[in-house]
Every structure is written in structure tokens, then in C-alpha cells.
Amino acid sequence: MEKISRITTQKKNKQRYNIFLTHEKGDQYSFSVDEAILIEYRLHKGMELSKDLIENLKENDNFYKSYSLAINYLSYRMRTKKEMYDYLLEKEVDENYIPDIMDKLVEESLLNDEQFAELFVNTRISTSSKGPQLVKRELIEKGVSTRIAEETIKKYTYEIQYEKAMKWAEKRLRTTKKDSLQKQYQKMQATLMQKGFTYDVISDVMEEVKNNQDTDKEWDALMYHGGKLLRRHGRKFTGFELQQKIKEGLYRQGFPFEQINKFIDEQVKE
């Protein structure tokens, strides 16, 4: 049996304590423990410790160090079970500790994939222009089960989707004035799909956008691109060949034939 001669607080970490044991040459440092271990085992000066108890204290303290690492990881934001498991592996935590750490975190409601998914979806709805399918994919990539992801994503109602998609579409129209309407529609639809909005929402948004199209703005865009084509091809071509080059260029950019012909009639000489 060995006896605790003194207990001191570590300078850099006030939650950890150095344990000194009595030896022939006086007391010597033996090991350190977390405050939780100190309290649990009621360690105090003069207490006698067997070799088995000392080993048990060291083992429990190693576990608690790993547990504290997990707590610190959670201090920045909530994590999924997969994120926590991967983190503990990355930090080279003893794999024998990981299941117990995970169980302890679950029991203390510090790890909960349902709560994580709900908070994640609410945050995405409040702060991003992403649609539900993309958010669902993000949840699954973070380790949330497909079942939980599908259930949680139901919070992303049609009304929420439509409002977000329409707001983004209107902003996009204001910043792409130099494209033809057709090209704008194509880009817009492709991006809404990439953002994860559902097909019915995309269809309704595109229909609304097309109903509110501004042909004057499209004519301004056509004048811009037509002018560039005229300057580019006007150096090499004239007459019919020049007209064809400009028509081909404007058509590829999605402008309607009626407006293209109007531009040719008004801006390109025979």
C-alpha cells in the first residue's frame, strides 16, 4: 500500500490535480487525475492506495481525458454520432474507450442525431437559399440516417421552398441582365435543381418568372450582345455573311427570332 502525501492543483489546468505518494526519499509525484476522478474516489492526503487502485485511477483518468476531448469538440456546435466517432479516431483515442464515451454522451443528451437534424434544417431554412434535397444530402453526409433526414426535411414545406426559390430567382434576374431570357431561364432552372428544390416548386417558380418577363430588358441585352457581334464580325464580313454571323451568335445565346430580325433590320446594313 502507498499513501498520498499531498495533492496539488496544476498551474495550467485548474481542473486537474497532481497526486504525490510517500516514498523512502520523501514524497514524489506519481500521477495526475481530473477533478471528477478526485471527487469520485474521494482522494485526500493520508489516503492509502493499493497498486490495483492506482492502476484503476490511471485507467479512469485516461478515459476521462478522452471524454473531455469529446466535450470540447461539442463546445463549438452540435455533432452527429458519426462526426464524433470519426473525430475520436482522428485524435487517436483508445478504440476501447470510444463506445463507452459515445454511450455516455448519448445518455447525457449531448449526442442526438434527431436534435442535430432538426437544428441543422432550421438553420438552413433561416440562413441559406438551399432546397430540401440538398439539405437532406448534407445531413446524410454528416452521418444522419436516411430515415431521420427524410423525416426532418418535412419541415421544409412547399411554401418555404417557393418563397426561397422565388426570392433567389428574382435576385438572379436582376444580376443577369445581359443574358437572353431563355438563357436566364435555363441557368435559373439548372441552379434551382442543384440547390435541391423539388420539381413542383421549380416548375411553379419558372412559370411565375416567365409570366413577369420584361421584354424591354431582353431587348437591351440583345442590343448589347448584337453590338459586340457586329464589332467582332464587321471587320471581316459584310452584307448577307455579316447578317448570318450575327444571327447565329444571337440565336445561340437564346434570343427570339423576332427580336434578332429586328436588330438586323435596324443595325446591320445590306
Search tags:
elongated, four-stranded antiparallel beta sheet, 4 strands, alpha+beta, single chain, 270 residues
How would you describe what is shown here?
- It contains 13 helices and four strands.
- Helix content is 63%, strand content 10%.
- The longest helix is centred in the N-terminal third of the chain and has 24 residues, at 51-74.
- The radius of gyration is 34 Å and the shape is elongated.
- By secondary structure, the protein is α+β, with helices and mostly antiparallel strands.
- Strands 3-2-1-4 form a four-stranded antiparallel sheet.
- Strand 1 and strand 2 form a beta hairpin.
- The beta-strand count equals 4
Mean pLDDT over the full residue set:
88
Query: Main sheet: which strands, in order across?
Result: 3-2-1-4
Radius of gyration: 34 Å
Low-confidence spans:
none
> Strand pairing plus helix content: what structural class?
alpha+beta
Roughly what fraction of the amino acids lie in strands?
A: 5-15%
Our count of helices gives: 13
Main beta-sheet annotation: 4 strands, antiparallel
Principal-axis shape: elongated
Helix-strand topology string: EEEHEHHHHHHHHHHHH
Q: Helix proportion of residues, in percent?
A: 55-70%
Distance between the termini: 110 Å
Task: Tell me the layout of helices and strands.
Elements: E1 2-9, E2 16-23, E3 26-34, H1 35-40, E4 48-49, H2 51-74, H3 81-90, H4 98-107, H5 113-127, H6 132-141, H7 146-152, H8 158-175, H9 181-194, H10 199-211, H11 215-233, H12 239-252, H13 257-267
Antiparallel strand pairs: 1-2, 1-4, 2-3
Helix pairs in contact: 5-6, 8-10, 9-10, 11-12, 12-13
